[in-house]
Amino acid sequence: MSSPTRQRLSVRMGAAPVPALVEGVPASLDPALRAWIYETAAQDPEEAQHLLIRLDLTLPKKYADTYQQQLQERQSKQAELSAQWEAGKAARGDNTYVAPRLPVPMPPNPFARFLAYGTDHELLWDVVDDLLFALCREPLSPETWPVTAFLNPDARRTRRIIEPLNRLLAESRSVYEVAPNQRGLTRRMEAGLGEALALASDAAQDGGYPKARRHLERARDKLFAVRPDPSGAYVDLIRAVEAVACPMFLPLNQVPTLGMVRAHIKDAKTKYEYVLTDKSGTAGTTDAVVAMLTALWEGHSDRHAGGPREVPVLQEAAEAALTVATALVTMFSTGAVRLRR
Predict the structure, then answer these.
(1) Rounded CA gap, 204 and 213, in Å?
(2) Burial of 274 (0-12, 13-18, 19+ CB in 10 A)
(3) How many other CB atoms sit within 10 Å of the CB of residue 291?
(4) Fewer CB near the last or first residue (10 Å), C or N of the chain?
(5) Which residues partner with 215 through β-bridges?
(6) pLDDT digits (tens, 9 = 90+) for 160-206
(7) CA angle, 49 as apex, 43 and 51 as ends, to 5°?
(8) pTM for this model (two decimals)
(9) What SS3 string covers 177-231?
């Protein structure tokens, strides 16, 4: 099932602006999202109980009492149907076929019901995120045979969980989407930024800097999480650039930093060149690269605690830093800054 992306007619005709992404759970989404939570949590009642523990929630007594009452009613109904079945079998005789007795369905699981219909409105995204992590599995390798992938029970359950959720998220224009690893939610990333991040990650991996790729991915996960951590993401962005730049420019330094890399390139500007040329066709200077390093390094406003200049890193600042960091990782990994020839 593909997620619909078609804009409404008024938007397509230019009579209305493109709707902004929605942060919370709009009233139009609430019933369907709660129904998805119930259907998903009911697949694994034990995991639903543990989800309450992880979110520090307590099952209200009324849910437990209702469940016990429904269990007793089910037991009575089952006994009544069994007696009718036995009487019918005796009346027909041993040689007459009698359809198997049908069990009375179990009542709704109280933990799944509470997660879906008793949880506060503000916690719904946390519940959805935790259910994805607990019940879904990461995508199979692209080399997996299609038949094997289709028959894999974990992959099949993950598809059954994710496909209807993807549709709900798309139709409600939610700011969230299912993460690439299928095990949680992530904030939607602007398409160009996502492409730049993927390009930088691949360049780092191909250039022999796998640590840079891991730091970029950690920064992405922190920055676009259900509960974003822009400060933590900024740290990983600096580490991503350091993972490429430090061994490249300061291979003998035992404790190199991005600030040292910046100072080294700035002081040895005649030693390095930048692949972008000037108007005469001469290889460019590294001034622009130094400026990017400076912006990233000095923009880490909460690096040192306790001083008057300690300022929390804002989400928009961390997203801007992601743009700068991905560009630097790509340039360094692909040799765009090099020894002057």
Answers:
(1) 6
(2) buried
(3) 13
(4) C
(5) none
(6) 999 999 999 999 999 999 998 999 999 888 778 888 999 999 999 99
(7) 90
(8) 0.72
(9) EECCCCCCEEECCCHHHHHHHHHHHHHHHHCCCHHHHHHHHHHHHHHCCCCCCHH
